[in-house]
Design a protein that fits this description.
25% helix; 2 helices; alpha+beta; flat; single chain; 59 residues
């Protein structure tokens, strides 16, 4: 069996293709609802950014 890496662009685009997304989606009854206490959330300095995203240090 061939081992595949899931950190390459080709692999991620394969996973995110429309026919493959359905297998990753959970059904409504399998989804759980959750909340986060925003007063406990720490967002530190931005350490990376691209055209459509920003990544912050969190603890």
């Amino acid at each position: 069996m061939e081992r595949r890496r899931f950190d390459s662009l080709e692999s991620w685009s394969m996973i995110l293709e429309s026919e493959n997304v359905e297998t990753w989606e959970a059904s409504k009854e399998d989804q759980e609802e959750w909340t986060a206490d925003l007063s406990q959330l720490f967002i530190g300095n931005k350490f990376a950014s691209e055209a459509h995203s920003r990544i912050y240090l969190g603890k």
